[in-house]
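Many introductory courses stop at the sequence. We go one step further.
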Amino acid sequence: MGFVKYIKEEMRIIKERDPAIRTSFEVFLYPSFKAILRYRFANKLYRKKLYFFARWISQRTARKTGIEIHPGATIGKGLFIDHGIGVVIGETAIIGDNVTLYQGVTLGGTGKEKGKRHPTIGNNVMISAGAKVLGSFTIGENSKIGAGSVVLSEVPSNSTVVGVPGRIVKRDNIKIPREDMDQIHLPDPYLNDVTNLKKENEYLRGEIKRICNRFDEIQSTCDKLDELDIILAKLENKNNNQTSSK
């Protein structure tokens, strides 16, 4: 892709996904634009085994933009990094087309293992602010990772993941994340669990109250029977006394 065509494509991507942009020339001020442009150049050097110069460019870019992309990462077209501060993309990470990352996202490994150790991100995936995706597995296309989530295992396509550790709370969502860019209105499994526990607690309280009321009724009946036994015993004693006197 030529440089002019690349800039036009970046302008289109940013305008599509960031409502804050007002003019096309603002694209030159975006950290995402600068970081990805420099990554493309560093990646070419990396593939030519000019590792020092590739890393030199990536480290300078990290200091200037707050976005650290290892030059060995594989990134498709249409990547958009909103704000970008704190974004880290590891060496063996693979990112598909039209992916959106927010600030604080980490695509990292889990240790010092060799080979493929960073995640593979499918097409049209959105990873919300502060989310951490750690390990060598795949995030399926059209999936959405909630803000602050920690994802440690495979995510099927068309899924929504939230929580720590991340849990799949929705499947086969036909909406493409980059069309709505909504990283807030996601299902909340913890709230659902608390709501269900509250309902169960109210039900149990009702059952205990009903049992207590029934116990009081039984106790009252027993008290009445005791009183009746006393009366009967008195009558029996009286009858016995009368019989003895005769």
